[in-house]
Amino acid sequence: MGPEVGGSPETGDCSEKMQLAEALLAATEKHVKCLRESYRNMGIVSSEDYKAALHTCDELREASDSARDALEAHIREHGC
Ligand SMILES: [Zn+2]
Predict the structure, then answer these.
(1) For residue range 13-38, what is the model confidence (pLDDT) as tens digits?
(2) Are 13 and 7 in contact (CB under 8 A)?
(3) Separation of 75 CA from ligand 1 center, angstroms?
(4) Distance separating alpha carbons of residues 74 and 5, to the nearest angstrom
(5) What's the CA-to-centroid distance between 28 and ligand 1, angstroms?
(6) Which residues surround ligand 1, an ion (CB under 5 A)?
(7) Predicted structure pTM score
(8) Which of 42, 49, 72, 78 is the most buried (most CB within 10 A)?
């Protein structure tokens, strides 16, 4: 995609960047929510269930890492 797509980089008003930032925020919130629920269940659920929950959190963390990489890559390539 060329620099013309998704708004004007000069003003920092890039709709694609905004979308990527929203996706990063959503992914981060999911990860934090997962951790909060896992810690809340610590000692309540079985250790196997607890480990499984932490594994889910790890996957959500990876998803949020990817979302951040995508945002950073976009800013680097687009210069916005
Ligand atoms: Zn951009």
Answers:
(1) 899 999 999 999 999 999 999 999 99
(2) yes
(3) 6
(4) 12
(5) 21
(6) 14, 17, 78, 80
(7) 0.78
(8) 78
Q: What is d(CA 20, CA 11) in angstroms, rounded to the nearest whole number?
A: 17
Q: Distance between alpha carbon 12 and the CA centroid of its chain, in Å?
A: 21
Which amino acid appears at position 34 of this protein?
A: C
CA of 4 to the centre of ligand 1 (A): 9
Specify the long-range contacts of residues 9-18, CB closer than 8 Å, at least 24 apart.
Answer: 9/78, 9/79, 9/80, 12/80, 14/78, 14/80, 16/74, 16/78, 17/71, 17/74, 17/75, 17/78, 17/80
CA nearest to 52, candidates 34, 64, 79, 74: 34
- For residue 29, the CA-to-ligand 1 centroid distance in Å is 23
For residue 20, count other CB atoms closer than 10 A to its CB: 21
Q: What is the Å distance from ligand 1's center to 37 Cα?
A: 35
